[in-house]
Amino acid sequence: MTDRYTYMAQYHELFALPYKEPTQRAVAKAVADCANGVLEMGAGTGLVTETIADASPGEVFAVEPAAPMRAVLMSRLARRPDLQRRVTVMPMSALAVRLPVRVDAVVLISMLLCFSPEERQKLWQVCADSLNPGGLLLQDRPEPSSAEAIPPAAGSLQVGRARYDIEYEGRPVREGVLRLSWSYRITVGEEPGIEEREEIDAYPITEAELDAELAAAGFDRADAPDELLGWRLR
User: Fold this and answer.
1) Which fold, 8-142+205-233?
2) Which one of 3.40.1190.10, 2.20.130.10, 3.40.630.10, 1.20.1250.20 gives the CATH number of domain 150-202?
3) What are phi and psi for residue 44, nearest 5 degrees?
4) C-alpha dihedral (213, 130, 93, 120), degrees to nearest 10
5) Bigger pLDDT: 4 or 70?
6) Does the reported pTM lie above 0.70?
């Protein structure tokens, strides 16, 4: 059995970086005063982790269960000895997190759809247990917000003599569940390409549903920079 994101990790930054930059700027603004630390759930390859560490003065706890993604994250930190004292990479599920200290903010970017409604209830409890009173929970706007089919979309990039093609789509598999798939192809010159495919089941949620779940978990809606949604722990 392959680890989740076995294939995606190597392509993630090539295709994600242009779309993540507005989110990175918004997160940097939101966590600038978090002197008592920030918890990032689903750190992935560390695009947002590095942003948080550069923008905030406290500790950063970066949670990422997938080894292929963590490999890129650790390589990023290897090039940043100035951050190694403050950034702790936690190789576990978000649902298993137990921090040694409480923090001022929890950041969830591009990861919430991986959790079923039942798992989200546990996630909100972990977030509440991790935050100082009045602490901030930051979430990007949930997309997709419904389990309707997503038509195929494609993109490509050239790196040296290699061409990287990606195709993305989503199809409903049962009520409230959307199977997202990414197909990758690498072609070097005229040689036959390498083809790889990754799939995950996603659990779409609307902003109104998210508000209701977090209100029940002890959070009130709060201001947040553009690109983000915010709540504070009561």
Assistant:
1) Rossmann fold (3.40.50)
2) 2.20.130.10
3) 60, -130
4) 0
5) 70
6) yes
